[in-house]
């Protein structure tokens, strides 16, 4: 970070520039404040790039895509002028240092990398960010530790969307100046091979970031040993995941599969690390020492004055272009509700502080930091209240607004106006505070499945939840609006939404399949060939699905079907509609609707929700 030079502008688009944060392949980045006092990062595009009509057109499209991403897990795009002589974009200034700085500092100080719970929350946040980014039609292409900022409320991803504009001009000054889209230690194999880059590439990069957070080292080696050696390892060698315990190790390894088709989707990663809870009121996701450091950063930001001439600012502010930050980096300002998927108004804006007001606010911020640290020390002890019995149905743990009688996995059939709909609903509810994601919902219909995250809106006689669809199979799903879940005296839950309801019973072992289902089963296809269904015992953190492969002289079809329920007590195993892996399949591959599995006398029967069709499978030899 540096003071403004004589040739630096003093304002851009109504934003008062405070200091220069850094420079990169696209231009320069400045710390700035809006007219209302909000701290932002303003990126000015290089003049030579602005002169390229193709670049400007791509930049315009990427800014529009970035606006659609929202701000739940990313730095929000607040303002931009893509038509100015010097185009620019302003983003929110996130409160926290980069993951690269955090891990490097912890390793140097002897604290080691992040603990498992922190890495799980990191995985949830990064996967959620990718889900939002990919949903806006954007591929990040440069997800690395310096582009992940660490905040008390969870990780935030920066520098997404616009990075795609760099390779729109293969013969422009962008290439000639040596700019590379991607960082060698965190590239995907397809980036190294100059192949088509898809959202699956971001999943690979996420796996590398998670491995770094869990071990303190890149999984394919450091560029200090030679950039080409690292790139060779990424393309051909297994990652170094030594020291990472299961099930986290298996999840990271799946993200680092060489074949993009073998990597999980972001929604699968989200499901694999559940249940998890984030937010300022929840048990902190970071170690207590790191929480204390973030509290000190918060005090420093309050002391950042707006110089009358635009010159002068505290040193060590994070580099918004690269995500790097100095040892005394000031944090970036977050919207009040970081869990909201909707853009928030600028509620934090305030006049630039005077000396007296800064002194008062310094005291207040220091006090808040002390409260956070005290909470971190308590939760770091690992103490957690057990689930209560039927005689104590509504007690809550100290870190949660949710009564313990709700915590767990619940499932049941859906009715409407008293009539069965053929649909089933499953909720996995964890502890958490109002405003946090506290549940996962799985809806299984006669021809579809929907998976959603649920945020806690209010707590009273019932829980009120607001859901967001994260996965649809079969047909497009949409959120039903407000959901209510009520605890009953008979140890069941009643779920209601949009005129539908269900009595949900507790699932005692939601990730334990009856052993008689485990194995590979096969049947003969009517036109010749075989279909094989492979069912493996579920492991905590692993995707709940079964693999299906159909093979004949004219086709090869690979698909996976999510497991809705694991059966037992006379109930069948329920599967969602299979999803074909198009890259691994050839020929005319078609799949059916949801189905149920049952095993009797050594054979397995698969029946479909609609019609009388049933298939019988025998153990594969």
TrEMBL record:
Compositionally skewed regions (Low complexity) per UniProt: 307-316, 340-357
UniProt keywords, alphabetically: ATP-binding, Kinase, Nucleotide-binding, Transferase
Protein name: Protein kinase domain-containing protein
Domain Protein kinase: 15-286
Spans annotated as Disordered: 302-359, 389-414, 568-604
One Pfam family of this chain: Pkinase
Signal sequence segment: none
InterPro entries: Kinase-like_dom_sf (IPR011009), Prot_kinase_dom (IPR000719), Protein_kinase_ATP_BS (IPR017441), Ser/Thr_kinase_AS (IPR008271)
Binding site for ATP: 43
Organism: Streptomyces daqingensis
Highest taxon, organism lineage: Bacteria
């Amino acid at each position: 970070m540096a003071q403004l030079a004589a040739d630096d502008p003093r304002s851009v688009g109504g934003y008062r520039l405070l200091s220069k944060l850094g420079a990169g392949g696209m231009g320069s980045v400045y710390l700035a404040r809006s007219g209302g006092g909000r701290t932002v990062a303003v990126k000015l595009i290089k003049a030579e790039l602005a002169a390229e009509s193709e670049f400007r057109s791509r930049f315009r499209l990427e800014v529009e895509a970035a606006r659609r991403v929202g701000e739940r897990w990313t730095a929000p795009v607040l303002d931009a002028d893509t038509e100015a002589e010097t185009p620019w974009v302003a983003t929110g200034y996130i409160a926290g240092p980069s993951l690269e700085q955090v891990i490097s500092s912890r390793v140097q100080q002897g604290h080691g990398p992040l603990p498992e719970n922190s890495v799980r929350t990191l995985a949830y946040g990064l996967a959620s960010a990718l889900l939002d980014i990919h949903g806006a039609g954007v591929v990040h292409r440069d997800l690395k530790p310096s582009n992940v900022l660490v905040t008390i409320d969870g990780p935030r991803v920066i520098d997404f969307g616009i990075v795609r504009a760099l390779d729109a001009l293969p013969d422009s000054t962008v290439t000639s100046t040596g700019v590379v889209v991607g960082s060698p230690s965190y590239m995907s194999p397809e980036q190294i091979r100059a192949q088509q880059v898809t959202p699956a590439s971001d999943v690979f990069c996420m796996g590398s970031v998670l491995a770094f957070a869990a071990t303190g080292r890149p999984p394919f080696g450091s560029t200090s040993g030679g950039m080409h050696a690292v790139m060779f390892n990424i393309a051909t060698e297994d990652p170094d995941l030594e020291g990472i315990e299961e099930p986290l190790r298996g999840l990271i390894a799946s993200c680092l599969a060489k074949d993009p088709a073998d990597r999980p989707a972001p929604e699968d990663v989200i499901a694999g690390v559940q249940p998890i809870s984030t937010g300022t009121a929840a048990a902190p996701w970071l170690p207590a020492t790191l929480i204390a450091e973030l509290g000190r950063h918060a005090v420093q930001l309050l002391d950042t004055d707006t110089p009358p001439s635009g010159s002068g600012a505290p040193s060590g502010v994070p580099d918004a272009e690269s995500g790097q930050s100095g040892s005394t980096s000031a944090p970036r300002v977050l919207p009040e509700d970081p869990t909201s998927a909707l853009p928030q108004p600028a509620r934090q804006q305030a006049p630039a502080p005077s000396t007296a007001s800064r002194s008062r606010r310094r005291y207040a911020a220091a006090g808040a930091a002390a409260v956070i640290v005290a909470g971190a020390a308590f939760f770091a002890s690992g103490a957690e209240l057990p689930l209560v019995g039927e005689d104590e149905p509504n007690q809550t743990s100290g870190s949660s607004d949710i009564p313990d009688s709700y915590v767990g996995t619940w499932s049941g059939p859906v009715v409407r106006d008293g009539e069965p709909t053929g649909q089933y609903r499953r909720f996995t509810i964890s502890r958490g505070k109002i405003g946090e994601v506290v549940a996962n919902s799985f809806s299984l219909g006669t021809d579809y499945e929907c998976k959603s995250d649920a945020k806690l809106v209010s707590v009273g006689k019932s829980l009120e939840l607001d859901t967001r669809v994260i996965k649809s199979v079969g047909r497009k799903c949409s959120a039903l609006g407000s959901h209510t879940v009520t605890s009953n005296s008979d140890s069941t839950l009643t779920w209601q939404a949009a005129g539908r309801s269900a009595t949900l019973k507790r699932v005692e072992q939601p990730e334990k399949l009856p052993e008689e289902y485990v194995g590979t089963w096969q049947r003969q296809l009517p036109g010749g060939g075989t279909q094989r269904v492979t069912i493996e015992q579920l492991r905590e953190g692993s995707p709940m699905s079964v693999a299906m492969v159909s093979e004949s002289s004219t086709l090869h079809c690979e698909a996976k079907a999510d497991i809705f329920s694991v059966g037992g007590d006379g109930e069948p195993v329920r599967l969602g509609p299979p999803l074909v892996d198009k890259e691994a399949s050839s020929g005319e591959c078609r799949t059916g609707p949801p189905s149920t599995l049952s095993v009797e006398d050594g054979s397995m029967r698969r029946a479909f929700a609609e019609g009388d069709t049933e298939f019988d499978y025998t153990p594969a030899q």
